[in-house]
């Protein structure tokens, strides 16, 4: 066969390979995650850890500067500070920048629209996370709702009780809390979990004082009275600030339970319910036993 003659078998192989390669890149199943029709939960969790920690660093910086610019929302126990707004900018716009089209709901949605103009883009990988999570899931973006609290325990933040302060990111799929991140800016601890996949919790709950329950120090309501009604007059009542702090305190062994009486917002509980579910310990319900719907 002359060198100039073409090999029909070779030509057919090249054609088939080229056709497969074209289909491989244009088929929807092979579109990049950055197209955001689907989202990698592992990437979302890594990003949430990064933005919660970055928001926390901003809270520490503003607290040290002394320029809190505190004002009341609805009363002296419901405050907002420059820290709330600055952390919101980092966390809200960071997630929206990394995952356009993602439904993100923040406690500070009424804050000025990103006055700094800059966006912190979180990392989509986390080495510590990779060592624990061995699997991933790609979920349709429309199934996800993210609830963020840029500064939980604002009142305590203004009073210098910084051990109670957290930043939180909660994940809901079809309205169910399935994961979350709680970061403690002033101690550097970050707790995260994802239902049926894993968490980084060091459980010390067996060390909790017997018959003890954590309640809010500023929104006590009937929590103390109801706790003693159900647990007995000898129940140990521990008053503390911040939903994130009180919930994670159960794992830290500070109390056996957390009881809240009165209204509470979904950005206060989505992250911690997701973390609780990652441990198979239970779930949050209202006083009628109904589960919480986190769609909106």
UniProtKB/TrEMBL annotation:
One of the record's GO molecular function terms: metal ion binding
Residues the record lists as binding Mg(2+): 107, 149, 151-152, 268
Keyword Cytoplasm in record: no
Metabolic or biological pathway: Polyol metabolism; myo-inositol biosynthesis; myo-inositol from D-glucose 6-phosphate: step 2/2
Alphabetized InterPro entries for the sequence: CysQ/Inositol_MonoPase, Inositol_monophosphatase-like
Chief location of this protein within or outside the cell: membrane
One Pfam family named in its UniProt record: Inositol_P
Membrane-spanning ranges: 7-26
Cofactor: Mg(2+)
Keyword Membrane: yes
UniProt subcellular location: Membrane
GO cellular component: cytoplasm; endomembrane system; membrane
Superkingdom assignment: Eukaryota
Record's bilayer topology term: Single-pass membrane protein
Reaction it catalyzes: a myo-inositol phosphate + H2O = myo-inositol + phosphate
EC number assigned by the record: 3.1.3.25
Protein keywords: Hydrolase, Magnesium, Membrane, Metal-binding, Transmembrane, Transmembrane helix
PANTHER family recorded: 3'(2'),5'-BISPHOSPHATE NUCLEOTIDASE 1, INOSITOL MONOPHOSPHATASE 3
Family (UniProt): Belongs to the inositol monophosphatase superfamily.
Official protein name in the record: inositol-phosphate phosphatase
């Amino acid at each position: 066969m002359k060198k100039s003659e073409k090999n029909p078998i070779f030509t057919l192989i090249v054609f088939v390979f080229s056709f497969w390669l074209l289909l491989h890149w244009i088929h929807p199943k092979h579109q990049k995650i950055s197209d955001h029709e689907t989202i990698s939960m592992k990437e979302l969790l890594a990003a949430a850890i990064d933005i919660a920690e970055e928001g926390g660093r901003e809270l520490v910086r503003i607290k040290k500067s002394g320029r809190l610019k505190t004002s009341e929302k609805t009363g002296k126990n419901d405050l907002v500070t420059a820290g709330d707004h600055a952390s919101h900018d980092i966390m809200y716009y960071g997630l929206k920048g990394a995952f356009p089209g993602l439904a993100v709901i923040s406690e500070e949605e009424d804050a000025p629209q990103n006055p700094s103009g800059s966006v912190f883009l979180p990392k989509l990988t986390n080495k510590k996370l990779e060592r624990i999570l061995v699997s991933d899931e790609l979920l349709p973006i429309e199934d996800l709702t993210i609830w963020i609290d840029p500064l939980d325990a604002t009142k305590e933040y203004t009073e210098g009780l910084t051990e109670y302060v957290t930043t939180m990111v909660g994940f809901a799929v079809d309205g169910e809390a399935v994961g979350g991140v709680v970061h403690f800016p002033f101690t550097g601890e970050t707790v995260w979990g994802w239902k049926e996949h894993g968490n980084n919790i060091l459980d010390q709950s067996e060390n909790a004082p017997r018959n003890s329950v954590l309640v809010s120090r500023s929104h006590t309501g009937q929590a103390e009275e109801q706790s003693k009604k159900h647990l007995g007059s000898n129940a140990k009542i521990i008053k503390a600030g911040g939903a994130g702090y009180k919930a994670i305190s159960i794992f830290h062994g500070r109390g056996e339970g957390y009881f809240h009486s009165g209204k509470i917002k979904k950005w206060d509980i989505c992250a911690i319910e997701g973390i609780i579910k990652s441990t198979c310990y239970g779930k949050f319900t209202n006083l009628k036993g109904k589960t919480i719907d986190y769609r909106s």
